[in-house]
Amino acid sequence: MPSATVNKPRPSELLSRLTSAEPEVKVRALREVKNQIIGNRTKKLSFLKLGAVPAVAGILADSIDDVTENNNCNNTNNFLVQSAAALGSFACGFDAGVQAVLDAGAFPNLLRLLANPNEKVVDAVARALRMIYQSKLAPKYDFLQQKNMEFLISLLNSEKETVSGLGASIITRSCETNLEQKALFDAGILRKLNSLLEGGSLSQRDASLESLATVFRNNPEVISKFAGPEIGRPLSSIIDLAKDRYPRTRLLACMCLIVIRNASPHFLQDIGIKTKLIHILLELLDDPGQVGDEAPFAFSSLIAQKEDLQKLALEANAIDKFHHHIKKGSLHPRRYEGILLALADMCSKLESCRSKFLSLQVLNLVADALTDYNAGVRAAACICLKSVTRSIKNLSAGYFMNETIVIPLVQLFLDPSTSVQVAALGATSNIVVDFTTRKSIFVQCGGMKQLVQLAKSMESSVRSNALWALKNFVFQADNRLKEGVFSELTASLLSSLIRDPEPSVQEQALALVRNLVDGCINLIEFVFAEDGLILGAIGRQLQCASKAEIGIQGMYALCNVASGNEFHREAVMQLLFTQMGDKNQSFVVKFLQSNDSQLRTATVWTIVNLTCPSSPGAPCRLEKLRNAGIVSQIKNMVNDPCVDVKVTIFFIFRICFLFASLFWLT
Amino acid sequence: MASSKKLISREEWEKRLNNVKIRKEDMNKLVMNFLVTEGYVEAAEKFRMESGTHHIDLATITDRMAVKKAVQCGNVEDAIEKINDLNPEILDTNPQLFFQLQQQRLIELIRNGKVEEALEFAQEELAPRGEENQSFLEELERTISLLVFEDTSNCPVGELLDISQRLKTATEVNAAVLTSQSHEKDPKLPSLLKMLIWAQNQLDKKAAYPCINDLSNARLEDPTF
């Protein structure tokens, strides 16, 4: 039985009709393609693969030629409108489409057509260009060229909403540097945008808000010029729009105000506006669409790093509201990610927020998010955990070291996305600083072995974060645990990590050694394993340390080794002095002269351990240090600004006096 | 026993009302706004000729009404083409609305008994929407289940076949087109009347006065104790 006839041509058939000689066939095929792709991402992709975009761009180009030759106006306009609309639809929210349109060379043609006398043509073309400018792939607009600025001004001055909207979206996409922001201000663009805010239509107001935010971003100078007394009180129009009836306008107005707040310490700092912003954004969460999805991100940009705002938000029951929304379930991934990140920001500094979070049992929901199908959500859940696990009170109580959290977290170590891996490692680093006896749970679920595996990753950020987690894991851990880690790591791996090409990896590896050898004297043997591989690596790395942090961790590691027995101390001395023969200064002197007080502190502590009077070899070592000019260097540090250094130096002086008096005695 | 409420006589009330000046142009604009938003094209044009009140380009109203009518009659494919001619961005940036229209298309195919075509359409056009956006899957399943039931008038999802479903979609489409034209989707007149009712409720607590109970004729009724 024949199926009902639809007479729907196959896509390939449609495409061939696009090149037909008969204009009727061609225009009908063009319109059909346009109608099939609008709203339909799947069709956009399939037509794209068949090469539809160059074909449509070709029709556009041909029609422009017809216009110049004044051929058959109505038909030509129809072709222009349909092809521009089709190109615009390919570019709408679809990066592959944008790329194809640009590659087909349609962009300059579209620009030219903005001057076309027919309104419908201009509308279609302006929309298509705006779709392109909404993508990251849009060509960069050079505001600093005079004629470009003039063109932009003409766009903004246009009566047509589609055209002025295009002008605004060019600014929103392309304005990046302070120089460009200033150029836009000097050209009077902000005044124009402000007039669109006050007298324009809904879409013009929204577009204006986005552009203004772009021009204000990180530029306090432009902001104060704009908000200054000469132009009236333009900030008040933005504040009013934050209470507008349309949710999208409210959101964009809030985002603009937040940009202003964050850039400039003079504006919008009173508690009234802060509270209002918080309430508006929390209320926008109720919007079921894209506005509600973006609201938590705006909320984060408002409160991130700012304790006063986090406190206000806590009082406004922000955590309860976020909890309520996550509990509802079936969230759009973008919204889910946003809420998790907002919770992470809320709990990043204040213990009161973390307590509220934990008391509401939000932790279980966040643990669920660790296994979400969306990578952004998984990463956000880890970042949220990292914030919450900063709660020392709960860490000490062993609250987080349990299977509900640890098992899914360890699984994320193998996540295909690097950013998820790094985020999971970040959360783990906090959780393993567990002061109870529950660290073994982490070993039991395979976490420790996984961390060692990740320390061999190709990605340097994964290596350094894995080492960070291991460093925290062995912090004040019992000997058995430390031995387990060391035997899994092996001396050769650890020494190669100390000599890793990435400074951040070197630093974490040295810090790991520091924590490993701290405590029981038996553990110091680690650095001597396999012919002193690790000790040698430390020495070589300290010689060429590229930043202070590496020196600090390395010296503290040596400091801990020197707290052992005579053999250990002599080994450290040898390390310090193997470069003595060189023309190069010993790194010890370099470190003592460093600007970094922590580095100076670590170095003098090491010297204290080496010359501690109770050990028989101490006088000999002190003599060597004196001969190497290190003692006189220390004497110069009597007035060191850092208290830790001063106090330690005082110890060294006492040691010197003690030995001096002994010297007289013998 | 004297009432604590103040009594205002009809005479005094009317005197007070007369002191309030309302501009003719404002009233004309309200009427025009109502006619335009509701889509009464000919009435709007006649009113413009007779009162001199401006309105937005009538062609856009006519276009919008054509779209709404197409949906109401179940000619969804035609409606989609018309919307795209008006403004291709509407459906490109509104996945919810696009899905609703596609869903309506499927419903119409099922209503007309074109089962094979309906299945093919569901597979080719609607399933990808569900893949692109998981929240549509539930609605999609509901619609497909229409095919399962022999007696659609009694099945749990029977309401989808009801004319009210078409009207719902038509209203959504109308609102989307209005918004895209930067026109407000609701007329002002109902808001004014709601404000009147609210104000009267507030005043009721403090006074007895001639009030309007029947909005359609706006007749003042004498105050009662």
From TrEMBL, chain A:
It comes from the Eukaryota. ARM repeats lie at residues 105-132. It comes from Gossypium tomentosum (Hawaiian cotton). GO terms for cellular component: cytoplasm; GID complex; nucleus. Keywords: Cytoplasm, Membrane, Nucleus, Repeat, Transmembrane, Transmembrane helix. PANTHER family: ARMADILLO REPEAT-CONTAINING PROTEIN 8. It is found in: Cytoplasm; Nucleus. The keyword Secreted does not apply. The keyword Cytoplasm applies. The chain crosses the membrane at residues 647-665. It holds the Pfam family Arm. GO terms for biological process: proteasome-mediated ubiquitin-dependent protein catabolic process. This is Uncharacterized protein.
From TrEMBL, chain B:
InterPro entries: CRA_dom, CTLH/CRA, CTLH_C, LisH, Ubq-SigPath_Reg. Signal peptide: none annotated. SMART domains: CRA, CTLH, LisH. Residues 60-117 form the CTLH domain. This is CTLH domain-containing protein. It comes from Gossypium darwinii (Darwin's cotton). The lineage of its organism: Eukaryota, Viridiplantae, Streptophyta, Embryophyta, Tracheophyta.
